[in-house]
Amino acid sequence: RALLSRWVLLIMLLFFEQCLNGLQLGITLFLMSAGLTLVFGIMQVINLAHGSFYMIGAYVGATVASNSGSFLLGIAAALFAAALTGMIVEGIVLRRLYHRDHLDQVLATCGLIMFFNELTRIVWGRQPLFMDVPPWLNYGVNLLPGLTYPAYRLAIIVVGLSVALFLWLLFSKTRIGMQIRAGAVNREMVAALGVNNSLLNTVVFGLGTLLAGLAGVMAGPILAVESGMGESILILTFVVIVIGGIGSIRGALAGAILVGMVDTLGRAFLPKLFHIVFHSTNADAVAASLSSMAIYILMAVILVWKPKGLFPAHS
């Protein structure tokens, strides 16, 4: 009985740890999806190059943090670089695509992906960069007896939730937030009231790319910083937006946490569950396939239930 109790305790601790990992992944996805859903919901632009700003934030943050020895300075540089690059791209490229077909937007932003991937290889080379966890966050926090969790991952969760609160305050309590929401509903009327839509679009796009850069620099100490790193997370980001509802920040948060949890728990526990039913070789193959499919199954189920997503904008 004591052995059984110990096993149950270990399983509960493992489950809680994986839930925290899922929350941390979900928060990273939220930082990505919040910016992307904001841009599409307000500007009606499909920006497949959003992952490139995630990559730029990671590269600039890793470079500045390594050369200066300051992680906070690296974050500041990453935010500035991602936002500035985004506003330049909006002014030079995307501004010409607002009234074009979505296919034109897809083709143009696909071209931007290739441009930025090659640019990072030219500037930083083909070898990945590795970003150290700052010393003041490089320790474990005892959350429960027997469970020590990295402080840096907890910091990512805190930063993401703080950003969610900031975005809620921005769009609910400020004048510019009111203008952004009004512009998403009726751009012509907002322009007639004297709001500079071009400047508003630039600000919105810069905010979206700033959030992507923040996600990239926060993920830098966990993942290798390399060219093309934005494409894999971009797929998950689109799944989050579809699940949460296009144009909805609240939906982005809910969808991101759902996707993070399902993806992490599936990869952690499905192999163990399938080992009980199948032969070990078959169990690994089936579990790996289902783990990678889990978030898409989740998306299909939610779309059958709510075709516009969990919290569609303007509903």
Largest sheet: 2 strands, antiparallel
Which word captures the global form? Answer: globular
Q: What sequence of helices (H) and strands (E) makes up the elements? A: HHHHEEHHHHHHH
**Unreliable segments of 5+ consecutive residues:** none
Indicate the proportion of strand residues. Answer: under 5%
Number of helices: 11
The helix-and-strand class reads: mainly alpha
Biggest sheet strand line-up: 1-2
Determine the mean pLDDT.
86
| Cα separation of the termini | 54 Å
What portion of residues is helical? over 70%
What features would you describe in this structure?
- The protein is 76% helix and 3% strand.
- By secondary structure, it is mostly helical.
- The longest helix has 42 residues.
